[in-house]
Amino acid sequence: MRVLYFAWVREAVGVGEEEVTPPVDVTTVAGLIDWLAARSEGHASAFADRERLRAAVDQAFVSLDAPVADAKEVAIFPPVTGG
Amino acid sequence: MRVLYFAWVREAVGVGEEEVTPPVDVTTVAGLIDWLAARSEGHASAFADRERLRAAVDQAFVSLDAPVADAKEVAIFPPVTGG
Amino acid sequence: MTIRILVSPDPIDVAAEMTRVENGVGAVATFTGLVRADDGVGTLELEHYPGATETALHRLAEEAIARWSLSEATVVHRVGPMRPGERIVFVATAAAHRGAALEACAYLIDRLKTDAPFWKREVRGGDAVWVEPRATDDAAAARWRS
Amino acid sequence: MTIRILVSPDPIDVAAEMTRVENGVGAVATFTGLVRADDGVGTLELEHYPGATETALHRLAEEAIARWSLSEATVVHRVGPMRPGERIVFVATAAAHRGAALEACAYLIDRLKTDAPFWKREVRGGDAVWVEPRATDDAAAARWRS
Fold first, then answer.
1. How far, in Å, CA of C119 to CA of C127, rounded?
2. Touching partners of A (3+ C-beta pairs < 8 Å)
């Protein structure tokens, strides 16, 4: 599974993307975030406040309780501020 | 007093403007229109349907019961259709 | 703030007009009205009331600036004969935020349609017909009076 | 109808974009968002999610076309670093009548602000700060859901 990070989430994690293989009990975006948070202090810092995080699964915006079991690409990022 | 005509009012009257000296008992735009209607068949035709007429006195839009006693310039025209 | 009113027989240069209002602000809204190419009109002729037109447009721009705290308001209206696809009218509003710019732009074109002395005549083949006012224009202008 | 979506680091050419949507229609509305010159920002940086951005903008344009029977919908968004006074985003809508064009333009910029994956970072002097989302943007987008 490819995981992408944007904006201050990317800066805190320290990379823009990484390839990961979460265990089978990671079934939702929220579960994936919990599991990723243990990878480094940067990850833990980026994911400290769930209310400031948004996600997309295979490029479609989803809520954090959405499933990730079959996802090829999961993106985790702050609320958007374009335009 | 200068009287201006626009659009199909101008075409029916036959001129774009004329200098007139209405009698003292012409005190409103409606009274002026009544008086002007007697000047020619074109005037009568242009002013046949009052509901289709609008007016301005000294370049300010007014209703047909507005006074014209001290006016320098009165314009009579159809509802506007610009933009 | 700046008001720009132009009533002219020349084609409307939207690029120059847009650049003019993009003056340090955050948001610019525009509206352009064009001669439609799909209803058989060969020439559209715009008549106006010189002097009174500019006064009416200036007053509408002042009202929009006061109501939405605009930094710029531009109204350019072409007069005389024009062809399908050509621009009849261009309105631009500039403000710090988008809501003000967008609302003020809609306000100006709605009010212009009922409150500025322009008259349209459509020429199709050999027939010239004065355009009748539309009830929807009165309704659009009236919604701003609440 | 035609949808044009462009996400690019190049400056936005509004004259070319406007001419493109003036395609035989009667009404064109546009919105331009610019880097404000009055709040001390030296550089604004726009990050986005390549691929997902274009998909999101295309979906918004499709929704606007269906809801307002537009003939054209254009969304151009700049990414990368830009300076005060430069254009960040340009939206244009074309329709037979002005109400549809104006409403659809407001819809697209309101929805873009909350539903397209862009992130702004403001650089003032040596400090770079990610822009926080605004509650007013959520409210503006929500009004179209009724």
1. 16
2. D
